[in-house]
Design brief:
Putative p44-84 outer membrane protein, N-terminal
Length: about 100
């Protein structure tokens, strides 16, 4: 996907770090992002890393381009994200359509 407004990619769907840790949420096909999981895989636009680990997740914030490439596969994760079986946090109806 090519972004026509050059700055929008750095302003939309920017993943966040968990306070006190260095890794960011990393876009994926399914969310696995509980503090007890130490995985930091996210499918919600702009989601924060919640895992208690600095060994997994993205080294830098991921953005709209990453969200589109890694998360939006066919009709998966739009308008509602997907949570991996037995993982969390649970998807909420329209969470991506309503993401900030």
């Amino acid at each position: 996907m090519k972004i026509s407004a050059p700055k929008i990619d750095k302003q939309v769907c920017v993943t966040k770090q968990r306070k006190g840790w260095t890794k960011f949420g990393e876009y994926s096909g399914e969310t696995s992002n509980l503090s007890t999981e130490c995985v930091n895989k996210v499918t919600v636009c702009g989601m924060q890393a919640l895992g208690n680990a600095d060994t997994t997740g993205a080294a830098a914030a991921e953005t709209l381009k990453d969200f589109v490439e890694k998360t939006l596969k066919g009709d998966k994760n739009w308008p509602t994200s997907t949570t991996a079986s037995g993982k969390g946090p649970a998807a909420e109806t329209n969470d991506n359509a309503e993401a900030p």
